[in-house]
Amino acid sequence: MDFGIAGKKALVCAASKGLGKGCAMALAGEGVELVILARGKEALEATAAEIRQATGAKVATVVCDITTEEGRKAALAACPEPDILVNNAGGPPPGDFREWDRAAWIKAIDANMLTPIELIRRTVDGMIARRFGRVVNITSSAVKAPIDILGLSNGARTGLTGFVAGLARKTVRHNVTINNLLPGAMDTDRLRTTIEVMAKNRNLSVDAVRAERAAAIPAGRFGTSDEFGAACAYLCSAQASYVTGQNFLIDGGAYPGTF
Question: Which residues pair with 138 in a beta bridge?
Fold first, then answer.
């Protein structure tokens, strides 16, 4: 299927690896021109080269921390009028809420709630004027099923979800959609860090906890960044113009609810 977005411009945050990279690769495969961001120059340039080689797409890079004002300015200078915005940032560290002071909470909210809102604020009116826009926020399955050791993430990402629920109903009449992708246990560095913390807390080996986590998922395995990226590309497609304000779980069936 042709997703109808060839030639569109996309700004993809935290795209040097993991889920951001998966989204960037999938969009490039649809002929989208990319500006990809990350803090590490070496990994970012390697990813850009890999995407160019695999897809032939035009890929520009910006080394920055998107959670800072300087980083956002650099990103938007490189891609001032994106048709597609993929919001993504590393999640805050796991732990016990008793260990987190106000500064820890502000940092989490800044990165995982306020940064995507600010990027939407600066780009959505241009999308509306051009009568095309797709915003995809990478959040977490913890928005629907909170994970006890990820309290900082649970709080910040749920705040973003509430904000998007209202705005997405206002922009859709202009062919600008805003949706959230909720990854479950995906085979990324983030998952590996979480498993390491769980293993330490339970005095078990990392391999044992990893096997236990995978076995608990109805699919019997962890998800991949390629699968995640394909879902992102669909939400950015012309065909998805009637989909907005939704929270799409990609978790192998792990969430047990009907809704």
Answer: 181
Q: Is 12 in a helix, a strand, or coil?
A: strand
Query: CA neighbours within 13 Å on the CB side: how many for 143?
Result: 28
Which residues does 217 contact at the CB level (< 8 Å), separation at least 6?
A: 184, 185, 251, 252, 253, 254
Going by C-alpha positions, the residue among 241, 236, 227 that lies closest to residue 249 is 227
**Rounded distance between C-alpha atoms, residue 80 and residue 31, angstroms:** 19
Cα–Cα dist 174/76, whole Å: 22
- Residue 177 banded pLDDT, cuts 50, 70, 90: very high
pTM of structure: 0.94
Query: 20 — phi, psi (to 5°)?
Result: -60, -40
Residue indicated by tokens 């051009």? 130
Contacts of 20 (CB under 8 A, 6+ apart): 12, 13, 14, 36, 38, 86, 88, 138
Summarize pLDDT for 87-127 with one digit per residue, the tens.
Answer: 999 888 888 899 999 999 999 999 999 999 999 999 999 99
- End-to-end CA, the chain: 28
Is 159 within 8 Å of 178 (Cβ atoms)?
no
SS3 for 159-200 is HHHHHHHHHHHHHHHHCEEEEEEEECCECCHHHHHHHHHHHH
How long, in residues, is the chain? 259
Q: Which of 6, 78, 76, 21 is nearest to 227 (CA)?
A: 21
| Residue type at 62 in one-letter notation | V
DSSP characters over 211-244: HHHHHHSTTSS-B-HHHHHHHHHHHTSGGGTT--
With CA atoms as reference, report the closest residue to 13 among 34, 30, 33, 31. 34
